[in-house]
């Protein structure tokens, strides 16, 4: 009978997440993660070949967890409902998954990956980025935003508004207040209703 794995990948990633949000990019080291886990560094290297692969895997896990709800939202049949749901999902997810939200929305991947994405993770990263790009492009088209100004309006309503709304709290290590979701919803509706009522704005 094989021995149970003491330090599986998710256990290591959970400890890595704590170090990333508590200490930041400059102090994100395998040694620090090992101290957090009360484990030898070798147990981490057994699962991940190096620090960049580790933070890359953590980043991609966070993105996947965010995208589950975001991509479902942008696919809702009614485009206005889809857009508003996608915008408010950013707030909901930030409240429900504080540390992953702090990782993604306070930092950039380049803050941790100064040499770029490890080759073994590049395809997965590109696939994730393409999924959001495709989802937003389809939503923008369904909203009737065919010109540059209209497309910018959709992106601002669905992404810039909620990201900007949650970042101050996340940067301070706090969950966004519950009222932020309502404010984001009202702002997104105000920005997008002109598209729905009168077509694209050039």
UniProtKB/TrEMBL annotation:
PANTHER family documented for this protein: HTH-TYPE TRANSCRIPTIONAL REPRESSOR NEMR, TRANSCRIPTIONAL REGULATORY PROTEIN
Name listed for the protein in its UniProt record: HTH tetR-type domain-containing protein
SUPFAM superfamilies: Homeodomain-like
Alphabetical list of Pfam families matching this protein: TetR_N (PF00440)
Organism: hydrothermal vent metagenome
GO terms, molecular function: DNA binding
Keywords: DNA-binding, Transcription, Transcription regulation
Highest classification ranks of the organism: unclassified sequences, metagenomes, ecological metagenomes
HTH tetR-type domain mapped to chain residues: 6-66
